[in-house]
Amino acid sequence: MTVSRLLSDRVSVLGPILILGGSGFIGTRLTALLTEKNIPLRIGDLRPSESFPNLWTHCDVRQHESLSELARGASAIVNLAAEHRDDVRPLSRYHETNVQGASQVCLAARNAGIQKIVFTSSVAVYGFHPSPVDESGSFAPFNAYGKTKLEAEGVYRAWAAEDPSRRLVIVRPSVVFGEGNRGNAYNLLHQIASGRFLMVGPGKNLKSMAYVGNVAAFLIHTLSLGPGVQIFNYVEGPDMNTRDLVEYINRCLGKPGKTPGVPK
Known about the structure:
alpha/beta, seven-stranded parallel beta sheet, three-stranded mixed beta sheet, 12 strands, 37% helix
C-alpha cells in the first residue's frame, strides 16, 4: 500500500481546506490526493489551476481582501504560497510574499476562526551544515529565501501562541522532485538526459531529496494532528551523493559509461 493511501484515509474535516499556492507543483498533487477522498477544498493562487480550474480563485497572500473571503468557512489553511526562485528581483519580494504574506494568512485565520494552519517552510532555514541536522538544528540561512522562510515560521509561531487550542504544523522539505517539477531537480534530469551535464568536483556531497507524491501525502497526514506546534523535516532516504545520483539517473535513462567531470 502506498504512503498516500495509508495517510489520506485518516483525515476528517468540518469545512473545506484552503490551499494557498494550490496551483503549483506540490499544491496540484495535494489537491489530487484530497479530491480522491472527496475532501472539500478551495485553491487560492495568483495563477489559475490548470488541473483543477473549478476549485481555483484568484488570491494574493499579500492582500487581506482576497484572503479573508476565501478563508470564510474553511476548516484549515495549508500555505504553500512562496517566493522561491533564485532569480527573484527585487529581493524585497521574498519578504513581501513569505513574511508579510504569513502575517496576512494569520490575520485571515483569526478573523475566520480557523484553528489549524499547515505551513511549508524549507530546509533552507538551516543553511549549510557539515552533518545531518534534526528539527532542533541551528539556523544559518544563507539567502533571502531561507531567511524569509525562517521569519515566516516566527509569524506562525506567534499566531499559535495566542491560543493553546490552535494547531500549527511546520514542514521543512528537502529538494522535491516528481512529475510536473520545473525546478532544480528537473534541471539536473534535463541536463543529464540531453548529454550536457558535466560533473564539477568529486560529487561526494550528499543530496537530500523527497518525492512530491509522498510530500503531499504527509501534508494530508499533518491535518489530523492535535493542538500545539509541531515541526517536521521531510526527507526520504537513503541520501545519495551527487555522483551516485547522477550515475543512477544515467542507468535509468539507458546511458552507459561514467559521467564526465572536471576538478573543482
